[in-house]
Amino acid sequence: MTLRFLTSGESHGRGYLTVLEGFPSGLAVSLERLREELARRRRGYGRGARMGLERDVLACWGGLRDGFTTGAPLGFVLENTEWEQWRPVLDPQGVDPEQAEARGVTRPRPGHGDLTGCLKYGHGEARNALERASARSTAAWTVAGTVARILLEGLGVRVRGAVTGLGGVEISPPETEDQWLRARGSELGCPREEDEAPWRRRVDQAREGGQTLGGTFLVSLTGLPPGLGSFAEWDRRLDGRLAGALMAVPGIKGVEVGDGFRLAALEGGQAHDEIFPAPGGFCRRTNRAGGLEGGMTNGEEVLLRCAMKPIPTLGRPLRTLDLRTHEAVEAQVERGDVCAVPSACVVAEALAAWTMACAAAECCGGDRMEELAGRFEELRERGRWER
Ligand SMILES: Cc1cc2nc3c(=O)[nH]c(=O)nc-3n(C[C@H](O)[C@H](O)[C@H](O)COP(=O)(O)O)c2cc1C
Ligand SMILES: C=C(O[C@@H]1CC(C(=O)O)=C[C@@H](OP(=O)(O)O)[C@H]1O)C(=O)O
Q: What residues bind NADP(+), as annotated (predicted)?
C-alpha cells in the first residue's frame, strides 16, 4: 500500500482541493488539528499583507465520518477568502479582459517561476505561471501532511521543526524538549526567546532596504523503528525521498541529513556512529548520520536541515526583461513576504511527515489503522533486537 495526494487550485483562485488516497480506516482526524497546522503555516514576522487579509477556510469533502477515516479517499477544500475580488481576473469560464490585462505580469521576477513558466507553457505573461508556482499551494500540502502526521502520531512517531537562521543570523539548534516546544509555538519558529530580537531587527532592516531574506531550519522525526525505507532500489532510499520532499518546498535550495556537508571534511573514524552493547541490545552515542543509514531509518532521530533562498519578489526590484517589448526593465513589484522561513519550516514538517507515513504504509500496509499499528509495533519489536 502506498499513500498519494493531488491538489488543484490557484493562488488567487477559488481555493485548493486536496485529495488523499490510501489512508487506512479508523484513524481519528480532527479538523481543528488541521486548522492548527494551517495557522502555524501562516505565521512569521516578515510575512506580507496577504497573511492578514486572508483566512484559510477548511472543509472536509469526504472520507471522514464522525471524526474517523472510513477508508475512502479523503477530500479537503480550502477556500480563498479573496476569490470574489480575483474572479474577473481568473474566472475559469470568461475573464474580464481589462482586469486580466491590468493584472498581467510581463516583467518576470528572477528567482521565481515566471520566465521559465511562460516559456514552458506558452503564456505571453506570467499570471498563469505564478498562480500555480506560488507557495500558496503549500497550504494544501500542509493539509495532506498533517493527516500523515496524525497517522504517525498514532504510531508513536513525532515530527518537530525549528528555525535556526534568518538572513545569516544563525543560532544553535534546540537542545531541550522545552526549546522544541517553544519553537513550535513561536511566530519565528525560534527555540529561545533571546534569539528572537536579532531576527526581528534583521527582518526590519531588510524590509526598509526593499530586500528579502532566506534562512535555515531543522526538521526532526523521533520514535521511529529501524527499517523504514530500503536500499533495494534507488527510489526506495528514504534519505533521497525525504531530501526530495523537502527540496520541493518553494525556495528550498539545500537539504542536509544529519551532519551532512560537515561529514565531507572528516576522516571516517570521526564521521560514523559507532555501535555499542547496551543492556538487552545495542546503542549509539552519536547521531551524525541523522537517523538514516543505507536508505533506511536506523532507529535514531531523523534530523534534516534545510536552506531557503531569499524571497524573489523584492521591494527594490532586480533587473529583468519585459516579455512583450524585450527591453531591459526592473522586475514586477508585487506585495509579498520579506521572509517566509518559519512558514516553510511548517510545510517541510508536513512533507517530511507525508514521506515517512508513505514509508510506514509501504512497510506495514493494512486497510485498518489497527492493522497498520500492529505491524508497526512488530517492526519496533524487531528493531529492539532484545534492546
Ligand atoms: C510559505 C512561503 C511563502 C512565500 N512567499 C513568497 C512571496 O511572498 N513572494 C515571493 O516572491 N516568493 C515567495 N515564496 C518563495 C517562492 O514561492 C519561491 O521562491 C519560488 O516558488 C521559486 O522557488 P524554487 O526556485 O525553489 O522553486 C514563498 C515561499 C514559501 C514557502
Ligand atoms: C498566499 C501565500 O503565500 C504567497 C506565496 C507567494 C509566492 O510567490 O510563492 C506570494 C505571496 O502571495 P501574493 O503575491 O498574493 O502576496 C504570498 O502571500 C500563503 O502562504 O498562503
A: 41, 47
Predicted pLDDT of residue 23: 98
Query: Residue 387's pLDDT is what?
Result: 41
Q: What is the mean pLDDT of the chain?
A: 96
The ipTM estimated for the assembled molecules is 0.98
Distance 136 CA to ligand 2 centre (A): 5
Three cell numbers at 86?
480575483
Of the options 3.40.50.970, 3.60.150.10, 3.30.310.50, 2.60.40.10, the CATH number for the domain spanning 4-384:
3.60.150.10
Q: Which ligand is nearest to the CA of 315?
A: 1
In this structure, the residues whose C-beta lies within 6 A of any atom of ligand 1 are: 48, 111-113, 133-135, 138, 249-252, 311-313, 336-337, 340, 343-344, 347
What is the pLDDT, as a whole number, of residue 51? 82
Mark the binding-site residues for NADP(+), compressed into ranges: 41, 47
Convert the pLDDT of each residue in 25-72 to its tens digit. Answer: 999 999 999 999 999 999 889 998 888 778 899 999 999 999 999 999
How many C-alpha atoms does 174 have within 13 Å on its Cβ side? 25
343 CA closest ligand 1 atom index: 1
Q: Dig out the grid coordinates for 312 from the structure.
A: 524573489
| Local confidence band at 278 (pLDDT 50, 70, 90 cut-offs) | confident
Give yes or no for residue 112 having a pLDDT over 60. Answer: yes
- Whether residue 386 is predicted with pLDDT greater than 70 in this model: the reply is no
Domain ranges of the chain: 4-384
